[in-house]
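User: What would this chain look like folded?
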Amino acid sequence: MRKFKKLFILLIICFCLVSAYALTVNFYIIGSQKDKVLSLEEAVEIGDFDCVLVLGCGVKPDGTPSHMLYERVKAGSEVFLKTEAEKLLLSGDRSGETYDEPGVMNQLAINNGVEEKDITLDIVGFSTYESIYNAKNSFSVKKVLIITQPYHLSRALYIAESLDLDAYGYEAWLPFYPKQILWSLREVLARNKDFLKCMVD
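Assistant: Here's the prediction, encoded as structure tokens.
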């Protein structure tokens, strides 16, 4: 019984240490990137981005964008049209014949007034890390304005910084989603995962 009690206490201590580490990394990433988030006026003032990068997310089974994706492309199109960015880079997952985030994003951007010649698609942006890595290594981006929702933006900016990009962020609107709490908890884990990945890579 005493051995079981000691083991239980040890497990509790390990859990607390791991939790403390995870939360420390989480708040470090958020805090270290907050000054890079721009207002529309600040983005326009800087202006000379190599690209405005919109990060992909879910497409519904009927091929229409999720609310979150719609708001990302809307925000990205708006800021692109008002800055001197060279291109609008739409990065997402095209993993099958019926699932095509970049294709849906492309049509949304055109609907929002962006000319097709100004749009570049990254069809292998399967994760946040890959989208930003591809921007640098496949599309020769050096100075980038990243578009996504607030809860996701700090991680994207941290990844960009680790890849030596001159990166800024612009927040897409985040309406209330019933699953937002779950996504925010998932993001804590994702920040820790990409923190370690950035250290290794």
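The longest strand covers residues 143-148. If you want, I can go into more detail on any region.
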